[in-house]
Write a structure and sequence with these properties.
With 349 residues, the protein is mostly helical. It is built from 13 helices and two strands.
Length: 349
């Protein structure tokens, strides 16, 4: 068996493969629901109702989608240039650390200046964190999958040390958490009394900016060229290593914004469980969007809806909420398979 590249697929074929992946995901999830003794139609209805059946549910889905948009964009940008950034979780946490350090009174500035400065500082921290693995890759050929993945654990241990030491809230009754950021460092709510904050607006704006960069700029063209064939790009005069470094800075900065938005917009302080795996889920979001920045917004809302809806469904139907993890993982595997068959055909010898 060998894989033979296909010519440019038609629009119908491009649309058919993702739809087939979604259908496969639904089928597999349905079999698991049946094995749990419930009706698939009832479970999927309850998931949809729990995700968007009321204003509260919809706003919770969008709130959950906000960090997923940032991490999904980070992964989409990096993967487009074949820079395999598996460390969005670490970049998220380092962005959260910077937000807490600067947002708890270190900068006595009004909100109009304080929030943009904190946001830029968080992006710089995330960018520099990913610049290390990118430099190791471009200079020494070190596999960035290993370095970025291991950085997740290193940064989590670093955050744990900070929360037990310099950043520990003296009024936190011994709990490992930071002090709350000041009011001027907090993102306002979109709807008063609800949890959805302006981090969602920033996330959508970031998706539009990322799309413009990738589709309408020289850097975006160079990223796509390097992603398709780095040797051909180098032969054409594209500075491959420089492009990879720029890609790393952009990707790390986007992932750090997830940490900034969670602290400044939602939680108010830093804890070790700030992220339930947003960095890893960003890989799923990016792949479901087929690395399209605008598609990342829809993909993030879809994934967030599954998790939020599964929590409500579990209480009503008695099916474990872990079905959401299975559906997201299956969707990723199905989408990767769909992308493979959209680009290659199988030839049997």
């Amino acid at each position: 068996m060998r894989l033979e590249p296909k010519p440019a697929p038609s629009f119908a074929a491009t649309l058919a493969y993702p739809l087939a992946a979604i259908a496969a995901t639904v089928l597999i999830a349905s079999l698991l629901v049946l094995a749990a003794g419930a009706s698939p139609f009832s479970v999927f209805y309850l998931v949809a109702k729990g995700a968007a059946g009321s204003q509260f549910a919809l706003l919770e889905t969008l709130t959950r989608a906000t960090p997923l948009i940032f991490t999904g964009l980070a992964v989409a940008v990096a993967f487009r240039a074949k820079l395999w950034n598996i460390g969005a979780e670490a970049q998220l946490y380092i962005g959260a650390v910077v937000t807490v350090v600067l947002g708890t009174g270190a900068l006595p500035l009004p909100a109009g200046l304080l929030i943009p400065i904190i946001m830029l500082a968080a992006m710089a921290a995330g960018a520099l964190l990913l610049a290390g693995p990118a430099l190791l890759k471009t200079r020494f050929g070190v596999d960035e999958v290993v370095t970025t993945l291991l950085l997740n654990f290193i940064v989590l241990l670093f955050v744990s040390m900070l929360l037990e030491g310099p950043l520990k809230d003296p009024m936190g009754l011994g709990w490992p958490q930071s002090s709350k950021v000041v009011a001027d460092a907090q993102l306002p709510r979109i709807i008063q009394g609800k949890r959805l904050h302006f981090g969602f607006v920033i996330a959508v704006a970031a998706a539009v900016v990322a799309w413009v960069i990738m589709k309408k700029t020289v850097l975006g063209y160079e990223m796509r060229a390097v992603g398709h064939n780095p040797e051909a790009a180098r032969f054409a005069g594209i500075p491959v290593n420089r492009v990879l470094m720029k890609t790393a800075l952009l990707s790390g900065g986007l992932a750090a914004l997830a940490g900034f938005s969670e602290v400044s917009g939602l939680k108010g302080n830093l804890t070790l469980d700030l992220s339930p795996g947003f960095g890893y889920s960003g890989i799923v979001v990016a792949m479901l969007a087929m690395l399209n920045p605008l598609g990342v917004v829809a993909s993030a809302i879809f994934v967030a809806g599954i998790f939020v809806g599964a929590d409500a469904m579990s209480r009503a139907a008695g099916v474990p909420s872990y079905i959401a993890d299975v559906m997201v993982a299956t969707a990723l595997l199905s989408m990767v398979t769909a992308i493979l068959f959209s680009r290659y055909r199988v030839r049997w010898r």
